[in-house]
């Protein structure tokens, strides 16, 4: 190793002063860990190392896996979109979907145990962090693979929202999980998830991704690679710039933009609008264009490219906006929106190197994608745009859930709101959500923020949706708000920002790890019980000879809150509904 | 894609019929022969997705140091992350290349002489990536002692991991919850319905845990919002959980690393994307982590494991590596290639076409393997016998859709409905394959073969054979038999041309005393008792190009 001849950095001598080899510094921290007698007593359990359970937080896009008792997951990785919000309509297609899901889940779980955790699944109990709205067929698939293929001794299903609360040292709170497919708010009181009060909205990571893609297609700029290395200097960037070809925006590129470039700005304020108008918001921002001449100032650049778009390609513009992007609004509206966002953004434009599309592989090297600053800052506005009854904004989802909660719990829950999930990792997201919460409560009476649904009709008598929540405003506290607003002085509000600094995305996993090391957490389903159910199923299938043997029935040993005892009157559902039983031949024939 | 054959593994499923080939999901039940195992006890093929895997040793993939599994488990107590190489192996956080430990430059004295340096180099050592030039001095990680000294190096990094705020906070959380769980357990043990009374004495934690989530909800009845600010604590003190005081809370340091104001400002002023660390570099940290690329830490090398695999039903070992990490040999190795015939498929017509096209130097690979609709193609299957005994093989095409269950008139339009229209013809009768023999044993045969097989007329004979018959045994040599088949493709066929084929072969079993009649094993000695083993394969010949398309493609290119 010492064969590497020269140090790459010569001017690095001062680093010796910074270097961290002070062993004294680690004594206090080390002793802190070992000082706790409790720590050692509980540790003794894992003498043979199999006491710790495996904690798996399987998202539809990102999985986190590790062992309980550890503070961080051992690995986090991306999976293909395993399930979505909709399923195939045809039964045969759905079966195929199930099979593919099982194959994929099996491959992933086997690699989790054998390649990442390097442990024997037969000796490890598993805690599966489950989202409350995780489809039962997905859960069933996990159980099938873990019990059937991996033969784990038991699986505990633990609700992700509750685990997130545990990770901040609480058992009561209102948890919003802003993940990939959905944002789901769930109030939890004293470790009891109040499932009927759950509210959800599809405004989450996947929607943000789609929105970003649309914005970039409309307002981004693409500079193809120069056709020759020498020619690049002579052609100004503005004339090379084109619309963004769709092939450039691969999923990976969008994901990269979302996670590395985007953030959430302060709320749009109508009064501040005028103010900002006066000041040049598009002052020259440094844009490292290829080292040609001193590039025209960024504002010129964007104006030029913009003119190019709107004059030369105005017909193409509308085509793009309708057919490709699917934004059914008209051009002027989009322009207005863009202008408004532009005024409200001071973020710098960014350049990203992207692989040119295969059809345009004429140039040398990589193409350049210019991401307007306001797209970076205001792309996430889509998550805070309320007013749609089916797709409430993230803030409204929280408030709606709060409205459904029994009155005497509202204050307790309002002062312990916790935001988790991967999308909540966007810088500025939580602060913004906090102020959106306040704004939504404040504006629900005046409804100044939302346009009237039908302009020809007078506004109905003020429907004050969140009036009952208004007294709670001084108590409102987001536990993990990293930059809390000035305190209002109430006891509840003082909790703002007092949660431990765990990352919002890993909170459910950390909670799972905590639950595992406390030997608690979720309904535990043992393999014996599962095998019993499998045996029963097999017998009933044998009796019912007409039925297809390969039929999948969701086993009702799976814990599932949606099958909680219903209020008297409605009989509990014990089996999967009949349509699933249609044998393949019948489904296929007809 | 070149024509190929994959083998079906039933994976303990009840049905022996492989899934129809046109399902997307079917591809996962078929595997190339070299990935399969064979269990002698069960007389069955096993694949990588059904075998049970055991770890038989841990090692570092970089330095090949074997880590005893006891220490992998036990070191957890010392808070050394046990699944990482405890020696000098680190990964570059930017490109995941292996980092090397390099010394600093020797300091120059005033008079320009360099001081004599030790053999290992000057003290502040740091990690350097030879690929992307990242070095750990950028993030202020340097080492006093150089490479080779496992202990120091571990200690160097250990201090980062030991002071990891996440694990400290985690322990604190545990201490916060444990008394609560105990108390909850105590109250529930007063509850007459709890049957775990005796158990409670054995292990209070377990009892507490079991009832922790199922206990009565405390404070609901007596909770009144008016009193909550002052009275909550006093009234519900026994039941309510005390407020948790975080060691480091989210809003300390203004929320940097958690998306607070500093982060937003940083993002707003961002000049280049490369200043921001990518998600993959940040996401495994459960704690607030800086967005900046300049703050990322080197990664320690995760250990790999040597795995042995067992049959999922009888638990016999199928493959087991030798203990040493450096060794690439196996103690036990029951791979399917030693038990069942290897089959390769080729399409002479397509291959010839490809050859001619190559001659013209105009062909792309995609066009070369064109299979056009509405024509018939011969194909060759070459079967190789791995056994020391000759075998009789019979091939059967599995009908793709059972009669009476076509995929429906209702969805004629779908591609799947049109998929199967091709017919495959294979030799009906069983044919022999000679026994496997070591190379030198063939010498005698070869002389003989030379006379009538490898003569100048051999080519002619083969051509004749090809002309005369496309279906049937075409060639036999050594332990390889080539049989011909034919596929007739319908006029409007499209999609992948692949079909399931059932292969049965009969061999002389050598079960010495027939003590286990049921379990026949193909193996390599001879006692004259015939056994039959069948397995399914999928033969994939390529993609059918519809006629119109193929023409247009030809025009294009």
Would you give an account of this structure?
The complex is a heterodimer of chains A (590) and B (557). Chain A is an alpha+beta fold. In chain A, helix 16 (394-404) packs across helix 18 (429-446). In chain A, the strands form 3 sheets. In chain A, strands 3-2-1-4-5-14 form a 6-stranded mixed beta sheet, with helices on both faces. Chain A is built from 21 helices and 14 strands. Among the domains of chain B are: 166-240, no CATH class; 346-392 and 412-556, no CATH class. Chain B has helices spanning 69-74, 150-162, 165-190, 197-202, 204-212, 228-235, 261-268, 279-282, 348-360, 365-368, 415-418, 443-452, 458-468, 547-556, and strands at residues 4-8, 30-31, 37-39, 44-46, 52-59, 66-67, 90-91, 99-104, 122-129, 299-300, 304-310, 317-321, 330-333, 342-346, 371-372, 376-384, 391-397, 422-425, 431-433, 472-477, 480-489, 495-509, 529-545. In chain B, the strands form 6 sheets. In chain B, strands 1, 2, 15, 17, 19, 22 and 23 form a 7-stranded mixed beta sheet that branches. In chain B, strands 6-5-11-12-13 form a 5-stranded antiparallel beta sheet. In chain B, strands 14, 16, 18, 20 and 21 form a 5-stranded antiparallel beta sheet that branches. In chain B, a hairpin with a 4-residue loop joins strand 3 (37-39) and strand 4. The longest helix of chain B has 26 residues, at 165-190. Chain B is elongated and about 85 Å long. At the A-B interface, helix 1, helix 2, helix 3, helix 4 and helix 9 of A face strand 5, helix 1, strand 8, strand 9 and helix 2 of B.
